[in-house]
């Protein structure tokens, strides 16, 4: 089975041009088939503010009315995505920027209104793995913005990049041996949040439950790890969580970051 | 030889949601291989104004400093491009949005500074016709924003959509029988600018020279027609200039718009 890296890069790295450039150099150097899913960063909030559009967040998720949808479509689908694509092309990586609407690679459903109306926010409904596979076999490197679309209305939908990454990884696991890699600004999952070097090298599901029960792993890491373990249980071969600067080391020999493994 | 439509849609139609929707329905209905190149419209100027960035135009061309480059990358590459792609997907057309940087489909050179420094403005250097052809044969409909890129720096470059359309048409003329179609808000090239129905049905190069000498054709139409005749002299089978609402009629039976033909 051919190998595939599905790599997610978070917003904090995107907000820092030097860190982003280091990450993209490392990403470009990896010889495997690969897909990058990027977050949005703080630029959308800054642009919205300048345009006089108020940002409302609930549990870290952006409420996306029509004006905010236009902002994230501009910033994520335009500025952030094309900046990354241009930089990768300059580094001889044949990047192609995509939202879920492009070639219909990721269809979604607008999130139903329950206690909170998130607005134009999408939950992934279907990943077109044949199309992504065709791009990969055509020598292309898909760079996916955190935007999906509703095929019924044609509307773009703001979508969480972490869940997009795990959905893409799971969908491609039938055709590739997939390593899903979450890159962010920490060295991995920490056993002590005050010590940046206290990286847990490996976590199996039973240990994860124990860490959660003890409160060692909490808050923002829980949805990320829930996503990651779900991917592992659905055919993804390996999940890695690492610092953006340690991508190559984490992928090539596993000596950096946290590896999530099946029991 | 397979047929290919290379269609350019101008900014005035993009600024009008109803007109854009009518045009896209018509575009989606055409069964041929097709590529759409879209202009930017006035949204970039409006967004720039709200962001406190001044718009400077020289001879109808936008001076593009770094702040303005970010605006056009957001608006053309994000908002306008993805809005079109989403609408076409909703109309069952398998659209894929591209800038020149995506899959390196259109490389450019930053325009040299002479009397005027246009800033981050690109002149097309190379069209990757094999990649565009692969997309077409893969059942995709490329939707190209008026942005190219400089492979040496990785920088996006603001680029005139008319010249991008003729460059794409010429590059693909070796592999396809290309009909290049310029859609705008007039019914064609007019023999009397005060009479919207005075459409000249056909123009050959000698007649074009005569019309220019008499002043029948002038101003903004001249660069457009110079581009169009250059395409015709470089392998493009047919050039059509028509109203956005008459796309299907102009393409299917030639009874609308102006056809440019070789002598």
Automatic annotation (TrEMBL), chains A, B:
<keyword id="KW-0547">Nucleotide-binding</keyword>
<feature type="binding site">
    <location>
        <begin position="40"/>
        <end position="41"/>
    </location>
    <ligand>
        <name>substrate</name>
    </ligand>
</feature>
<dbReference type="GO" id="GO:0005524">
    <property type="term" value="F:ATP binding"/>
</dbReference>
<dbReference type="GO" id="GO:0003991">
    <property type="term" value="F:acetylglutamate kinase activity"/>
</dbReference>
<comment type="function">
    <text>Catalyzes the ATP-dependent phosphorylation of N-acetyl-L-glutamate.</text>
</comment>
<dbReference type="InterPro" id="IPR037528">
    <property type="entry name" value="ArgB"/>
</dbReference>
<feature type="binding site">
    <location>
        <position position="62"/>
    </location>
    <ligand>
        <name>substrate</name>
    </ligand>
</feature>
<keyword id="KW-0028">Amino-acid biosynthesis</keyword>
<dbReference type="GO" id="GO:0042450">
    <property type="term" value="P:L-arginine biosynthetic process via ornithine"/>
</dbReference>
<dbReference type="InterPro" id="IPR001048">
    <property type="entry name" value="Asp/Glu/Uridylate_kinase"/>
</dbReference>
<feature type="site" description="Transition state stabilizer">
    <location>
        <position position="224"/>
    </location>
</feature>
<keyword id="KW-0418">Kinase</keyword>
<feature type="domain" description="Aspartate/glutamate/uridylate kinase">
    <location>
        <begin position="3"/>
        <end position="242"/>
    </location>
</feature>
<feature type="site" description="Transition state stabilizer">
    <location>
        <position position="8"/>
    </location>
</feature>
<dbReference type="Pfam" id="PF00696">
    <property type="entry name" value="AA_kinase"/>
</dbReference>
<keyword id="KW-0963">Cytoplasm</keyword>
<dbReference type="InterPro" id="IPR036393">
    <property type="entry name" value="AceGlu_kinase-like_sf"/>
</dbReference>
<feature type="binding site">
    <location>
        <position position="158"/>
    </location>
    <ligand>
        <name>substrate</name>
    </ligand>
</feature>
<keyword id="KW-0067">ATP-binding</keyword>
<keyword id="KW-0055">Arginine biosynthesis</keyword>
<comment type="similarity">
    <text>Belongs to the acetylglutamate kinase family. ArgB subfamily.</text>
</comment>
<comment type="pathway">
    <text>Amino-acid biosynthesis; L-arginine biosynthesis; N(2)-acetyl-L-ornithine from L-glutamate: step 2/4.</text>
</comment>
<dbReference type="InterPro" id="IPR004662">
    <property type="entry name" value="AcgluKinase_fam"/>
</dbReference>
<protein>
    <recommendedName>
        <fullName>Acetylglutamate kinase</fullName>
        <ecNumber>2.7.2.8</ecNumber>
    </recommendedName>
</protein>
<dbReference type="GO" id="GO:0005737">
    <property type="term" value="C:cytoplasm"/>
</dbReference>
<keyword id="KW-0808">Transferase</keyword>
